[in-house]
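Project outcomes to date are best conveyed with an example. Our students and postdoctoral researchers have been running inverse folding experiments weekly, and each run begins with a structure described purely in tokens. The record below, which covers 697 residues, was selected by the lab manager from last quarter's runs and is presented without edits.
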């Protein structure tokens, strides 16, 4: 319901509030399925399901319907048509997702069902088929979550049980030797019962653009909901995922960006006789909600996560630019890494809805806790080089007698946060006020196993962060707003190096949102100015490997435009434009732009399904374009990357309960470098083709 319903309020009660965009929009479950592309509510910004129109901050929601239409397989692909986000700034990498949000590295800013996914080198991917939606909150979010860079956070929302029986089973076949099956079934355990279940699964064998690299996956996600009465719900969410992601090594700048005869995107730096990867991740948790009465609701969100990853691979060494003096032989490193990570997170909050005179309040008071146990051993060796003109594979691989890096990190990080938020409504005005106090503590050691020297990693951090926002919702569905917010993020101890200073940031944002009454759409525009101090980045460690350092302060200013619509005529669309101006303040790169952040990006996706009764009933076609502008590959701004425009396409057909689809990304097989820097250059994905056939009931 939009603002126009305000006219229906009782004139005899002059202090009554207009139910602006609340009564109808709150019927949409902010974690549930959405028909089409247009979401009206979200949980990420406020945790209360506030309508997007009334939230004074930029939010993008990517629905399961959109991801299906675009044939999305990874988080990077899902983010490809959203404003303010670079989904795959370093090309596709099956090991982890590395998006950028408003110019900042988003690897440490990914959440699953409102709880952070912890890993020092980037969150491990979660199976996209197991998601109901992806929400991108742009700008600082520390008031609600206690951590996250000022660029924002990405929150993945799992599929949950529903009390209506349903099912889907299908197969998929694509290039890169991809083939697999998927299923999603659920419903009430018994008719008119209190329990519902859902079981989602994927089994897929696949390679990558470099055909020697594996990318298999096996995923299973059982879920159960218990709803003993209308005011109480307990949902148990679990998942098990096994992967074997290989490393797509970078290539030397001299043999790609600065070469008249560059190596292609399918060139293999590793060796199948040596490279191997085995990763298992498990999530066990629940969401509990109980309404005491019409005013007060308690929620508890809890999860335990375990990541076990053993990995070894050959890749380009950064020494002397990655090449030997002959100019054609690639220096190589051998990396051995063993990760044992355990995370326990719990978020408790109490929500109250009441009035003080003519002002309505949605008050949220919460306490959350996180424990992260990080046990990682890392070794780098110089390894047998590889002739790029006449590569010989199959070994033997000779390693240097001593590891150039040989560390064991054993650390524990705990964080406790206390937060309070008040959302106020007075006539057409909407205000959001929030404060949070965080206490973070790191303990442990980083041991150089070559020398036996152990360095303590003990560190205590604490910070008060806040957010304030004001919006006015006009009767025609237009809502201008202004907001100010701050961020705080204790940085986990990296695998190679000592403790880092926490990052801090602040942002001012003004914008306008429009939710039309006559058609299903949502339009937004935002201008922002944000800064972050103690920005972490990857730098050479002097022995061919990498380490994490902090570069000081970064300022980012930008403009974001976004529109999404699902029309009754069968047309779905999403469009976005982003202008980003970045500047490094202080240090050796003072005045330069951030690495791999294009000044201009734009995208447009259209999907049309022929209506019932038409000649082509059941058929649909879709297409899109993604434009990534010019950018620098490093903070020294010495590597310039050209702009690129990529075309995507789809065709689909549905007859009764059977659906077939074909998706093509990078339709013209455009060859382009997605990034270039000290650690070499990486290519973006070439043409990918994926066909699916499914039966639903």
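After processing, the design step wrote out the following sequence:
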């Amino acid at each position: 319901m939009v603002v126009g319903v305000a006219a229906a309020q009782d004139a005899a009660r002059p202090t009554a509030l207009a139910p602006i965009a609340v009564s109808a929009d709150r019927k949409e479950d902010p974690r549930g399925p959405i028909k089409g592309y247009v979401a009206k509510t979200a949980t990420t910004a406020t945790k209360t399901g506030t309508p997007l129109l009334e939230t004074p901050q930029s939010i993008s929601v990517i629905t399961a319907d959109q991801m299906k239409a675009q044939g999305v397989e990874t988080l990077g692909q899902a983010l490809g048509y959203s404003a303010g986000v670079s989904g795959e700034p370093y090309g596709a990498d099956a090991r982890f997702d590395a998006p950028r949000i408003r110019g900042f590295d988003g690897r440490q800013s990914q959440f699953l069902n409102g709880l952070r996914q912890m890993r020092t080198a980037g969150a491990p991917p979660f199976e996209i088929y197991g998601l109901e939606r992806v929400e991108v909150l742009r700008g600082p979010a520390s008031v609600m979550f206690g951590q996250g860079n000022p660029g924002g956070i990405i929150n993945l929302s799992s599929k949950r049980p529903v009390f209506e029986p349903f099912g889907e089973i299908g197969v998929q076949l694509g290039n890169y030797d991809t083939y697999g099956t998927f299923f999603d079934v659920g419903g009430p355990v018994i008719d008119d019962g209190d329990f519902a279940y859902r079981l989602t699964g994927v089994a897929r064998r696949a390679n990558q653009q470099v055909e020697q690299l594996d990318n298999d996956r096996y995923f299973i996600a059982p879920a159960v909901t218990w709803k003993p009465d209308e005011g109480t719900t307990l949902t148990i969410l679990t998942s098990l995922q096994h992967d074997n992601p290989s490393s797509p090594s970078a290539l030397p700048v001299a043999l790609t960006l600065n070469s008249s005869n560059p190596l292609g995107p399918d060139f293999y730096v590793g060796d199948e006789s040596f490279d191997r990867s085995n990763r298992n991740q498990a999530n066990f948790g629940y969401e509990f909600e109980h309404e005491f009465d019409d005013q007060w609701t308690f929620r508890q969100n809890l999860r335990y996560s375990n990541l076990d990853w053993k990995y070894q691979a050959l890749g380009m060494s950064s020494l002397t630019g990655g090449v030997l003096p002959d100019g054609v032989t690639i220096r190589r490193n051998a990396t051995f890494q063993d990760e044992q990570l355990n995370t326990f997170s719990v978020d408790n909050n109490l929500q109250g809805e009441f009035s003080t005179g003519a002002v309505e309040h949605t008050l949220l008071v919460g306490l959350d806790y996180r424990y992260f146990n990080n046990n990682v051993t890392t070794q780098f060796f110089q390894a047998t080089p590889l002739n790029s003109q006449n590569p010989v594979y199959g070994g033997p691989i000779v390693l240097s007698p001593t590891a150039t890096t040989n560390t064991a990190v054993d650390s524990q990080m705990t964080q406790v946060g206390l937060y309070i938020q008040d959302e106020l409504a007075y006539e057409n005005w909407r205000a959001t006020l929030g404060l949070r106090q965080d206490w973070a503590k790191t303990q442990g050691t980083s041991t150089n196993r070559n020398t036996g020297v152990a360095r303590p990693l003990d560190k205590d951090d604490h910070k008060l962060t806040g957010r304030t926002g004001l919006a006015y919702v006009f009767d025609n569905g237009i809502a201008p707003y202004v907001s100010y917010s701050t961020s705080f993020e204790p940085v986990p101890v990296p695998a190679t190096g000592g403790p880092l200073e926490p990052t801090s940031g602040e942002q001012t944002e003004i914008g306008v949102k429009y939710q039309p009454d006559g058609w299903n759409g949502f339009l937004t525009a935002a201008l922002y100015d944000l800064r972050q101090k103690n920005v972490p980045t990857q730098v050479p460690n002097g022995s061919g490997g990498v380490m994490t350092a902090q570069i000081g302060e970064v300022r980012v200013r930008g403009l974001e435009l976004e529109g999404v619509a699902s029309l009754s005529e069968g047309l779905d669309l999403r469009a976005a434009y982003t202008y980003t101006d970045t500047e490094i303040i202080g240090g050796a790169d003072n005045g330069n732009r951030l690495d791999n952040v294009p000044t201009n990006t734009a995208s447009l996706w259209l999907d049309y399904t022929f209506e019932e009764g038409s000649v082509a009933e059941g058929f649909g076609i879709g297409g899109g374009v993604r434009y990534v502008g010019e950018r620098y590959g490093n903070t020294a701004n010495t590597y310039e990357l050209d702009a690129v425009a990529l075309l995507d396409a789809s065709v689909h057909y549905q007859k009764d309960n059977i659906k077939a689809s074909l998706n093509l990304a990078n339709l013209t097989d455009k060859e382009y470098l997605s990034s270039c820097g000290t650690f070499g250059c990486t290519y973006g994905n070439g043409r990918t083709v994926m066909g699916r056939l499914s039966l639903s009931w």
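The longest strand covers residues 359-387. The helical segments are 64-69, 75-78, 142-145. The training component of this project remains on track.
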